[in-house]
Design a protein that fits this description.
This protein has 21 helices and two strands. α9 packs across α12, α14 packs parallel to α20 and α20 packs antiparallel against α21. It is globular, with a radius of gyration of 24 Å. The protein is mainly α. A two-stranded parallel sheet has the order 1-2.
Length: 484
């Protein structure tokens, strides 16, 4: 038990009664500021939160996209197509391991977003302590698994023919190791999202592509034979972005993060919070979704022998710019819906779903029209993008956009639990479709299979759930207080 000694204040006059006449007005002002931070305040707040995040993402991705294209050309010209294929394969490993945080992201975001005073809320600090402990444990397990795989020589069997024989296995372990040790730092980005500072979190990513470019040009300048280890640079660059987010989050809710770090080694003195209720459905989704949606490169690495993997890497890089913008704008909705739940308001995601669908489809079509020029510039005529691959990505982008508003609405325990079964069904469906379609349409097979799975197992079930949930909540709230 922690004992707190309270000293009488010296040299201070008694202030106004905190429960006096001015308390209501002061509390309302504080609540308003908190709502503003998390993007509350109805449709206008939602538009501002999504719009500012999307604009910031476009700026960051514009900078990162241009530098990323240059980075791809540097890799292909100086290290070869095989090195570029392995770079894309290893750089995508985090997409296969989003479950590494064991679902704690949902707990942190909901705790911070639902608090009226996150800088002093003890529950918020206990939640951050719990997050650090879970992520440290997860990091230790990931490193141990990486060591076992390396000692047994299983990397070629796991990653397929896209792994280079000279140093590819060591590079895979170094990528996994770097990813693991950076995991605890990702608490900062979760805090920023919960605070409604998604645009700030997005802005921190502006350092990744320049840091990668600096590393590549250094290797080229010294003529280092580092073709197998290029992906490690991307992990180091992302670690820098995570560190920036943690520092910014610590400053915004000072002294919560600093105190939480000091409390981490003492679980008996400073207990955490129960996280399993929200974390377990999030964890199941984070295990299943990568298997269903992010195994495309592995399938192409195992099932093809031409330039299909390199084609997919380039298409994924180009359309990934759009997907990341949509994802950032979509996640900006999370604290808005969490704040609405904490205030017993009804915030419908149906109209935002139409906005996101139209935006995703429109941007995807524009990028598809530009893809031949971009491919020629980047690949220098070494390969072109298959029409099935480009068309599949356009549909996939539109469906990914459409699922975000409903998915962010469903971030409470009930909504997260509902999503588990459809996502589990999507695993065998997507793998089976993608495996079969690779043999039928080549490089575009996996992304077409993924698009079909997203439609059947996420978009349609989520919209069905949201419709029923909105009806239930409106029936329970006859005054009909609803926004959006």
């Amino acid at each position: 038990m922690t004992h707190v000694r309270v000293r009488p204040a010296r040299g201070r006059r008694a202030g106004p009664d905190p429960n006096g006449p001015g308390a209501t007005r002061a509390g309302a002002r504080a609540a308003g500021r908190a709502a503003g931070r998390s993007g509350g305040g109805g449709r206008g707040g939602m538009v501002r939160a999504v719009g500012s995040t999307a604009v910031m993402k476009v700026i960051v991705m514009g900078l990162s996209g241009v530098i990323g294209i240059v980075n791809s050309r540097v890799i292909i010209e100086h290290f070869g197509t095989q090195a570029y294929a392995q770079y894309g394969l290893l750089a995508a490993l985090p997409a296969l391991l989003p479950f590494a945080d064991l679902g704690i992201a949902a707990v942190v975001i909901n705790a911070v977003a639902g608090s009226s005073s996150p800088a002093s809320d003890r529950t918020v600090r206990r939640t951050i302590v719990t997050a650090f402990r879970i992520l440290l444990l997860s990091a230790a397990v990931i490193i141990a698994v990486g060591v076992v795989i390396s000692l047994l020589g299983w990397w070629p069997a796991i990653l397929g023919g896209g792994l280079m024989p000279d140093g590819g296995s060591l590079a895979a372990f170094l990528c996994l190791f770097t990813f693991a040790i950076v995991l605890p730092l990702t608490v900062g980005s979760r805090i920023l999202v919960g605070l409604g500072r998604t645009s700030t979190q997005v802005a921190s990513q502006a350092v990744v592509a320049p840091a990668m470019f600096l590393g590549l040009t250094t290797l080229v300048a010294v003529s280092a034979p580092a073709g197998s280890f290029l992906a490690v640079l991307s992990y180091i660059a992302n670690a820098l972005a995570s560190l920036i987010c943690l520092i910014m989050a610590a400053r915004i809710i000072k002294p919560q993060v600093g105190r939480a770090i000091r409390e981490v080694p003492f679980p008996r003195r400073y207990p955490g919070v129960p996280a399993i209720g929200v974390a377990w459905p999030m964890l199941v989704q984070m295990v299943a979704l990568p298997i269903a949606m992010q195994t495309d490169r592995l399938l192409l690495s195992h099932l093809t022998h031409g330039d299909e993997l390199a084609q997919y890497n380039l298409a994924s890089q180009l359309f990934g710019l759009v997907l990341q913008t949509i994802a950032a704008a979509g996640v900006a909705l999370w604290p808005i819906y969490a704040k609405a739940r904490s205030e017993a308001r009804i915030e419908s995601p149906m109209k935002p779903t139409l906005w996101f669908l139209a935006g995703g489809l429109g941007i995807g079509l524009v990028l598809a029209a530009l893809s031949p020029l971009l491919t020629h510039f980047i690949a220098g005529g070494r390969f072109t993008l298959d029409p099935w691959l480009v068309g599949g990505f356009v549909v996939f982008v539109a469906l990914q956009a459409a699922k975000y508003p409903a998915g962010m609405y469903m971030t409470d325990k009930r909504g997260l639990t509902f999503q588990v079964w459809p996502i589990l069904v999507s695993v065998p469906l997507n793998l089976g479709l993608s495996w079969w379609l690779v043999g039928v349409i080549g490089a575009g097979g996996p992304i077409v299979g993924s698009a079909i799975s997203v439609l059947l197992c996420q978009v349609i079930p989520n919209l069905w759930y949201v419709t029923r949930d909105l009806g239930r909540r409106r029936a329970e709230k006859p005054d009909g207080a609803e926004v959006g």
